[in-house]
Design brief:
The structure is a single chain. This protein is an alpha+beta fold. The protein has 2 domains: about 170 residues, no CATH class; about 170 residues, no CATH class. It is built from 13 helices and 12 strands. Strands 1, 3, 4, 5, 6, 7, 8, 9, 11 and 12 form a 10-stranded mixed β-sheet that branches. A hairpin with a 4-residue loop joins strand 3 and strand 4. The radius of gyration is 29 Å and the shape is elongated. The two termini are about 25 Å apart.
């Protein structure tokens, strides 16, 4: 049977190529788009944890994606936080998404932010952040051809790049807190407060004290990545990723269904000859399904290879964009791609197995 299946595939190279390409496109769509979503999320959370804070205080119902949280915390809460037993330090941030630079901008208090373990590690320039000054990280500078002394337009105002820091400090663009508050007409307001506990304090007790003091507010523990990940679920994010998978599978399903269904009509006489020679319904079904599996397998392999190439191109072209493709993701793409193709071949296989050999032999 194997020789018959491969012969059928080789006899129709154009249709086989289109089917393989369609399955590959579905896999590429699933892996690349899904990888961008997952990679961006993981990178962002990882950089948040790397700041070295123990807690993140935010307004009620806020998300760890600060761009989706209103800057409604009053700066007076800084003194209240410092009064909580076990709190060693606190630094406020004002965050806002900037469409021009496609990323978050943080307004920070340099003195307090610099006291945290994951502070800005300057590699070039002067560690100054006052007035209309801005500090960017190496990845952003490399991606946009920026250097110390150049200016950036932020909400209609020119900011001078005073320094470049190592990547890893939550966001990639930092401006003075007071300046950013003034630009957004939100004096004394911040989006979140990062809190560092005293090394001698009990983290659970400090967390309980903060929760009691700020009842109803969002208090995330930065030492629990799973908790932060759960809190970071943006509305519709899971649905978006599921939609990518469904569209990818539907694309492979429809193309294989169409290809196999058309093949049945073209090979009606061949199927009639096989059945007249004693081929069973199971034999016919297996033949169609094996052909589908080979086509889908080739499509999945091509799709995975192409996705890896696309991932390297994206990272090289856009260093600030992360694309995650783990072995699990590749395995999922393999299974779903083949599964979609097999499902698409079921009906054509069933139709071929039920074909009347007499009518098939007389088919023109």
């Amino acid at each position: 049977m194997e020789n018959l299946v491969t012969a059928n595939i080789r006899s129709r190279p154009t249709r086989t190529f289109i089917s393989v390409l369609a399955v590959a496109l579905g896999v590429i769509l699933m892996l690349v788009l899904g990888g961008i979503v997952k990679g961006t999320l993981d990178d962002y959370l990882g950089r948040t944890v790397s700041l070295g804070s123990d807690f993140v205080l935010q307004p009620p119902g806020a998300s760890i994606f600060y761009a989706f949280s209103e800057p409604s915390l009053n700066e007076k809460y800084i003194d209240i936080v410092k009064e909580v037993p076990g709190v060693a330090d606190v630094t406020p941030v004002y965050s806002k998404f900037n469409a021009k630079y496609f990323g978050l901008i943080f307004g920070i208090d340099w003195d307090s932010f610099d006291r945290f373990p994951g502070h800005l590690q300057i590699v070039e320039g002067t560690p100054s952040l006052e007035g209309n000054e801005v500090i960017i990280d190496q990845a952003y500078a490399s991606a946009n051809g920026m250097s110390v002394g150049m200016t950036m337009d932020i909400y209609g105002n020119d900011f001078t790049v005073t320094a470049i820091c190592r990547p890893g400090a939550i966001v990639r663009i930092f401006v003075p807190l007071e300046t950013f508050q003034a630009l957004n007409a939100a004096p004394d307001k911040v989006s979140a407060m990062f809190i560092k506990a005293d090394p001698e304090a009990n983290i659970d007790e400090v967390h309980a004290a903060l929760a009691e003091k700020f009842d109803g507010y969002s208090i995330l523990r930065a030492d629990d990545p799973n908790l932060m990940l759960a809190e970071a679920r943006m509305p519709g994010l899971a649905e978006f990723r599921m939609l990518i998978v469904l569209v990818s599978m539907l694309l492979a399903f429809m193309i294989v269904l169409l290809a196999m269904y058309t093949t049945i009509f073209e090979r009606t006489r061949e199927i009639g000859i096989l059945k007249s020679l004693g081929a069973s319904k199971q034999f016919i079904v297996d033949m169609i399904l094996k052909e589908s599996v080979i086509i889908c397998g080739l499509g999945v392999v091509f799709g995975i290879l192409a996705s890896e190439i696309i991932r390297f191109v994206i990272i090289a072209r856009f260093p600030t964009l992360q694309v995650s493709m783990t072995l699990f993701d590749l395995g999922k793409g393999l299974v779903l791609g083949v599964l979609a193709g097999v499902l698409g071949a079921l009906y054509p296989a069933y139709k071929a197995a039920r074909m009347d050999p007499v009518k098939a032999l007389s088919y023109e």
